[in-house]
# Entry
Amino acid sequence: DQQVKQNSPSLSVQEGRISILNCDYTNSMFDYFLWYKKYPAEGPTFLISISSIKDKNEDGRFTVFLNKSAKHLSLHIVPSQPGDSAVYFCAAISGTYKYIFGTGTRLKVLA
Amino acid sequence: NAGVTQTPKFRVLKTGQSMTLLCAQDMNHEYMYWYRQDPGMGLRLIHYSVGEGTTAKGEVPDGYNVSRLKKQNFLLGLESAAPSQTSVYFCASSPGLVAYNEQFFGPGTRLTVL
# Structure
């Protein structure tokens, strides 16, 4: 039972345009969400997070939106750059220290 | 600061062999984790530790054992490797004590079991 789903395995976007990565979850007890970025042959690195009491968090070119009623969050990257090409994982936690990760979306930004 | 380091980076085992993966962190973090990453499966938690001398099972613990004898080290053992344990293994750590800390990941160990 996949509690955190990333239904798009891959996404291609032109440089300078917006990238939108989506994540759906099923457990309404999740109260904190994170996005990680992973380059090949490296470990994931933290990108941005959002608490369930908010519906938006912004950090430079990266914005995460949370829609609790739809159990959906999204990561917007504007403008997209070739260096953003990586695999992006969303993760959720529910008051413990255990994260549930999605399956990842591979983003390719075309120059 | 080296952050989180993992040893070895690559390993090939034969079915039935044993091995230990070492994770070390120099950030004085309380919590440490072992994950495996498989194609189409994301990151799945194997075992975790909330402090020196403690361990707990994660989502997929079968076939693995762990030990946290020192705060900075978290060892993952495979007693009798199976082809199903072919995967990329990531160690992570977090400060703990306060919820919702980000986790810091090591570079991974690619394990192949023949």
The radius of gyration of chain A is 13 Å. Chain A has no helices and eleven strands.
